[in-house]
Amino acid sequence: MARNTTKKTARKSQPSNDQRVRLVLGALVVGVGALVVWSSQHDKEPSSSDEKKSSSAASSSGETTSDAGTSSRSREKLPRLREASSEFAVLTDKSPEAVAKIADPEAVAAHLDTHVCGSACAAVKTFVLDAESFEVETTTADDYILPPPESFDVIGSSLSRAERATIATRPTVVVVRTHGPVTNDQLVARAGFAATAIVADALGGLVYDETERRIENASQFAAHVITVPLGQPVFSPKQIVIQLYRQEDGTARLLTLGMARYGSPDFMLRGASMRAATSLSHVVNAIANDVVAGKTDLPFKVSLAELATMTGKKPTELSKAPAASQPVAVDAVPAERTEGDPDNDMVELVAQSSPDWDEAMANLFGEPPDVVHAAFDKELEGVAGRARKELPRAVQRFERRDGQLYVKGPFPIPGADADSDQVEWMWVEVSSCDAKGCSGTLSNTPGYATNLSAGKPVTVDRTRVADWMLRMPDGGITGGDSIEVLRKRSR
Known about the structure:
Blueprint: E1 23-24, E2 84-92, H1 96-102, H2 105-111, H3 114-117, H4 121-128, E3 134-140, H5 141-144, H6 152-155, H7 161-165, E4 172-180, H8 187-203, E5 206-209, E6 214-217, H9 218-222, E7 241-246, E8 251-257, E9 266-273, H10 277-292, E10 300-302, H11 304-311, H12 315-318, E11 328-334, E12 346-351, H13 357-365, H14 378-399, E13 404-412, E14 423-433, E15 437-442, E16 457-461, E17 467-471, E18 477-479, H15 481-490
Parallel strand pairs: 9-12
Antiparallel strand pairs: 1-7, 2-4, 2-5, 3-4, 5-6, 7-8, 8-9, 10-11, 11-12, 13-14, 13-17, 14-15, 15-16, 17-18
Helix pairs in contact: 2-4, 4-8, 10-11
């Protein structure tokens, strides 16, 4: 029986994206509003301020909806949730008639094919037709309460500018929800991804994943579908997000989003140096892969070989000394929450056999983690060359008050070789320019140039400007070509 309904969707409000400055690592999607890092390969769109995250005195055991585990800091097994669940919203501007043809369980089931569910389509179809497990709801964008337009550059960073401009113009939302028992076949996730991909494709829709706080087009979302046979590992790093925060003490904090669709609490990890963040994201993905495959015994054992399998690389590509690598044992303990964290169940991952994550990563990789400082490639060099030629006209427009000017420049990392190119590229909100340079305040919170902070007065030599951008009074943007280049690469 069709269950297509139209009703107001009551949902919890979410922290603003300004409060959730992040770098997406798990899915390798770099948000433009994310934390700026060290090289030309990562970027951040300037913001007049970066909100700091303060620690909350409250602590959560991550067990409020889980069946297993204890409240002590020592467990033998990772707690699992009582059920797995997922929700996706397809934003569309199609007619009500077109929406009605696909926003129905029977219609979705009829469209299921191997391109979205592989050889498991029969099981997925049975799941979709079960009214206790699958729901399609049609509502309006106003009733669904989408994030504010100022967040679209962040949550829609993988979209083109033209696509992002259509987000607020799509009046209809088709919500796809799945939930059910936690099993190694992961039918909840399979059906959620498959059904949403079908609906998005039929309606030319954009998919908003509130759990992971991102919007993708139908083609991008289709990359998450699970087509492996039942009984085989289903996890892919593309299916979750790992957020990276720089804590006030300069250390890294990683947090996953999306593990609930596999019946698992999300994972939090903290206290490592920022230079270890990429290596740690591989560890988190490896543990997520084990959990999705049904492993819950603690501690988890992560090896360099497992990381190589997860990343599709050879151990020699991950480490200069693979022979010196030692597996790391990882425990899961109650997570201490921070202001702005989602309400998701979560546990903290801790290195069991090392005093801190930096030493654990040094053991795992056979060498201390280091920052790879990538030089500009030909495409970004071209952007920088054009930016320097166009900068005088941009400065003139700024001086005429046509808009607020930002320039991107290099800032040395403390401790780096003075003759090296080990710098962090960051945006500066300009207050004035002369023949030699542009001065203003640092628009980003540094990840590696820890001698600086957001809002600090700085100057960028005009000969070293890598990009410029004018933010117009109406909110439009001119310039910022490097941002678009990096957006395309992040897809």
